[in-house]
Design brief:
Elements: H1 2-21, H2 29-38, H3 43-77, H4 89-102, H5 105-108, H6 112-133, H7 138-161, H8 166-176, H9 185-203, H10 206-212, H11 216-221, H12 226-248, H13 254-262, H14 270-294, H15 303-326
Length: 327
């Protein structure tokens, strides 16, 4: 376990460095770092501080959020098909950002987009936490998440249908595809605190996740409060995923694919899987983001498109394996 964590940390660090260096234009990373440390206002130092470094940090943070929450939700619901979108927060965050586009707030100030996404995620979180506090079971939370996703998707489609111009609709569609391009230090400052809080809440449930493999009744008899576990997982997933969607758009399949790839490496222990899935999610997201910059297309491919192309075949293979095991 320790060796696996160290290996994933090193891989993520290497991919962050590669993310800083990778790009369509030549970039001298060593010189940029030297200029930045020395305080020299060169173009390369500015590019490093305002574009390359924030993109790498957000890539790792978004991937960690998706991988971690995917593993937590699969452990809580004991469902291998659960992913961060199942609680409905992703759709609500996307709706909040779309409304910021629709009402022209993005042209008024730069942070309208992530703040709109966080507002949508916050409302969805408040709704889900209210259900959890009232003793709603896991199945009820899943159904509530499905309802939130459906409503958010319908309202997003309505906003696109009523968009004042085709250019506004096109901008919304491109954002919904998910991307880390043109993100700045402001995006990091807005989203990262919410992600860190979400990580802490989810990681605090590691022991309870292991107990849940024995069943809810057994976990309760061991002293774990299922209500508290649901609150921590749902609240943590909402904070981390909501902030991720707010700054990067919808990036699918990372939270579904990564836990399945890592589960055999941790002996199928849900508690151990949390941190490992987070680190692997960070590595996968960084790798996919590097790939979109290396593929010679104009405009740049969207990150959500690449992760979907990677994740969709895996999802189909997973469904086939589940069907075979059921037979």
């Amino acid at each position: 376990m320790t060796r696996l964590v160290i290996a994933l940390v090193l891989l993520t660090a290497l991919l962050m460095v590669a993310s800083i260096v990778a790009g369509p234009a030549p970039f001298h990373a060593v010189q940029a770092v030297s200029d930045l440390i020395a305080g020299r206002p060169t173009l390369e130092a500015l590019v490093l501080a305002e574009l390359r470094l924030p993109r790498a940090v957000l890539g790792a943070a978004v991937g960690f959020s998706l991988g971690l929450t995917g593993a937590a939700l699969q452990g809580l619901m004991r469902n291998p098909l659960a992913d961060p979108g199942v609680v409905g927060v992703s759709g609500a965050a996307a709706l909040g950002a779309v409304l910021a586009f629709y009402f022209g707030l993005t042209s008024a100030f730069a942070l309208a987009l992530p703040l709109g996404g966080l507002a949508g995620a916050g409302l969805a979180t408040a709704f889900l936490l209210t259900l959890a506090r009232r003793g709603a079971g896991t199945a009820t939370l899943i159904l509530a998440g499905v309802a939130l996703n459906s409503l958010s998707g319908a309202l997003t489609a309505l906003a696109l249908n009523l968009a004042p111009s085709p250019y506004a609709a096109l901008e919304v569609v491109f954002w919904l595809m998910g991307s880390l391009s043109d993100r700045s230090q402001l995006h990091v400052a807005v989203a990262l605190p919410f992600m860190i809080v979400g990580w802490g809440l989810v990681l605090a449930t590691a022991r309870a996740m292991d107990a849940l493999t024995l069943g809810e009744d057994t976990a309760a008899s061991l002293g774990f409060s299922l209500r508290r576990v649901r609150l921590l997982v749902v609240g943590g997933a909402a904070a981390a995923v909501g902030a991720s969607v707010a700054v990067a758009g919808a990036i699918g399949f990372v939270g579904l694919v990564v836990p399945h790839l890592m589960r055999p490496l941790v002996g199928h222990r849900p508690g151990r899987l949390l941190l490992v899935s987070g680190l692997a999610g960070a590595a996968l997201t960084l790798g996919a983001d590097i790939l979109v910059r290396l593929i010679p297309t104009r405009p740049e491919l969207k990150l959500g498109v690449v992760t979907a192309l990677i994740g969709a075949p895996f999802f189909l293979l997973l469904l086939r394996r589940i069907r075979v095991e059921a037979e």
